[in-house]
Design brief:
By secondary structure, this protein is α/β, with parallel strands linked by helices. It folds into 2 domains: 308 residues, Alpha-Beta Barrel (TIM Barrel); 130 residues, Nucleotidyltransferase, domain 5 (2-Layer Sandwich). 33% of the residues lie in helices and 17% in strands. It is built from 15 helices and 18 strands. The strands form 4 sheets. An 8-stranded mixed sheet has the order 12-11-10-7-6-5-3-13. A 5-stranded mixed sheet has the order 16-15-14-17-18. Helix 13 links the parallel strand 17 and strand 18. 50% of the residues are buried. The structure holds FE(8)-S(7) cluster (CLF) and iron/sulfur cluster.
């Protein structure tokens, strides 16, 4: 029998992406009250990320620790892609900017503070900004990302402001491991180094998380996967997080490039491969719900995950009357959100008809958003990766691909970029897109990735499932691999 989906009220209760699979393989379903708190948060709900937008405001320049994957010239790498610099804003500038974007981008549902330093290192600017947004646009969710060092002392103030979504970066729960990632922390006016620094950071993180969970916040933890340093340790981290009631775990790949001037980049610390990342996520996913759709966005990112509308708003200043218009804009936005949620509810995830021990298959999807297969292969800047199995369709992550096609005449050209795209998708067996030229089609087929355009404009999960079922019918699916086997394969 195909698994049945439950409904709560009018909202289909969808297991969040990567819900703990546990020994029995069953995904857990969210209580209605929690579902309502995450259904429009693009980071906390994989479904929501196709439809809702977030905005970061770069109001927190200072930091109180050092991470070996960070160069202070750039933004906080705990929640941002290293090597990117954001324009710093004052709290007043940030409030106006948020109200302006919120007026123009009706799908905006969340405003986050994620750098460029640590949001709580100098908390005045952060709280001033959050309070202003809460006052003028009370419907927007407030979100915050921190390294956790100063979290315990601010947990109550965050709860008082209604900040229900907080991210803490936890790379280790063992000071020996932590000291290899964080060389120092500033604590009570002096610098701690080595294991003493890591131990203090870990204590503060755990106490901060405890206080947030006690106050009802949905805590997400980001962990940077660093091969050879914490890859084997992250399962222990996940186990501790589960005990603490953490809601979501986002294991992100280390980005370490010499040109960013980070300690890891200069030392040649290698980044994890996509297969290593997938295996560690799989191995840790039985503890806490796993986030797989993070884009490591900028500290001033605007838009749905994977798109950046920031430059559009940076070219001009917010209009003078933006605060006066905030109430009316809020009413329009809430109506738009209700319509999006209704359309999401009308499109529940399909259940697979495939039964038994068929092997899982990875498929790449080209999309421009909206949860649809609606992008030309040659125009896709990134591909979403889905895993189809008898349990259903699960989002696995995304892969960057360079833009190699500037129009229909180019299909088949740009060979080297096509080759790098094929390498990025080498573990996928199918590619679903709106269109693909004959040259790339042949190259995909030759690489063992079968292109599918017959599901153009269809909802992604429906298309992926249809291809999976067709593969099952054709007798292409058999052996099964375990998370342990996957982890062993990349170690
Ligand atoms: Fe921003 Fe982070 Fe809030 Fe999201 S991002 S503060 S929880 S609103 Fe999201 Fe961006 Fe990944 Fe962060 S995709 S880097 S997880
Ligand atoms: Fe850099 Fe963020 Fe680490 Fe501070 S907490 S050192 S800003 S990555």
């Amino acid at each position: 029998m195909a698994p049945q989906r439950k409904r709560l009220g009018n909202i289909p209760v969808i297991p969040l992406d990567g819900a703990p699979s546990g020994p029995g393989g069953g995904a857990d379903l969210l209580p209605e009250a929690v579902q309502r708190r995450v259904q429009d948060h693009p980071c906390y709900s994989e479904q929501a990320h196709h439809h809702f937008a977030r905005m970061h405001v770069a109001v927190a320049p200072a930091c109180n620790i050092q991470c070996h994957y960070c160069n202070r010239k750039y933004d906080c790498a705990n929640e941002s892609r290293p090597g990117v610099v954001s324009r710093r804003l004052t709290p007043d500038e940030a409030i106006d900017q948020v109200l302006w974007v919120a007026e123009q981008v009706p799908e905006l549902s969340v405003v986050g503070i994620a750098g460029p330093g640590d949001a709580l290192a100098h908390p005045e600017r952060t709280f001033q900004t959050l309070e202003g947004i809460r006052r003028h646009a009370p419907d927007l969710k407030l979100c915050l990302s921190t390294n956790g060092l100063a979290l315990p002392e601010h947990a109550q103030a965050l709860a008082d402001l209604g900040v229900e979504h907080v991210t803490v970066t936890v790379n280790a729960v063992d000071p020996g491991v932590g000291a290899r990632i964080h060389p120092w922390v500033r604590w009570q006016g002096r610098r701690l180094h080595g294991e003493a620094a890591a131990e203090r950071l870990i204590r503060q993180q755990q106490e901060g998380i405890r206080r947030l969970v006690e106050r009802g916040a949905l805590v997400k933890v980001n962990s940077v996967l660093i091969p050879g340093i914490n890859d084997r340790h992250l399962r222990e981290v996940a186990r501790v997080l589960r005990g603490q009631g953490v809601f979501l775990h986002n294991i992100m790949p280390l980005i370490a490039r010499a040109e960013h001037g980070t300690r890891f980049g200069l030392d040649g610390q290698r980044e994890p491969t996509p297969a290593e990342l997938a295996a560690v996520r799989e191995a840790c996913g039985g503890e806490v719900r796993m986030m797989r759709h993070c884009r490591q966005c900028r500290a001033d990112a605007v838009g749905r995950l994977g798109e950046d509308l920031g430059p559009r708003f940076q070219r001009e200043s917010p209009p003078a009357a933006v605060r006066e218009r905030a109430g009316e804009a809020g009413r329009r936005r809430q109506a738009a959100h209700a319509a999006i949620l209704q359309s999401m509810a009308a499109r529940p995830s399909p259940s697979p008809a495939v039964e038994g021990s068929r092997r899982p298959v990875l498929m790449a999807v080209a999309t421009r958003g909206g949860g649809l297969i609606n992008e030309h292969f040659g125009h896709a800047r990134e591909f979403l990766i889905y895993r189809a199995s008898p349990e259903g369709v699960r989002f696995e992550g995304h892969r960057r691909a360079d833009l190699y096609c500037s129009g229909p005449q180019d299909c088949g050209d740009g060979e080297s970029v096509l080759q790098s795209t094929l390498r990025a998708l080498e573990d996928c067996e199918a590619l679903l897109c709106a269109r693909v030229g004959i040259g790339p089609w042949r190259a995909l087929e030759a690489a063992g990735i079968l292109p599918h355009v017959e599901h153009a404009m269809a909802p992604i999960e429906e298309g992926v499932l249809a291809v999976y079922e067709a593969m099952a019918e054709a007798g292409c699916l058999d052996a099964v691999s375990s998370p342990e086997g996957l982890l062993a394969a990349v170690s």
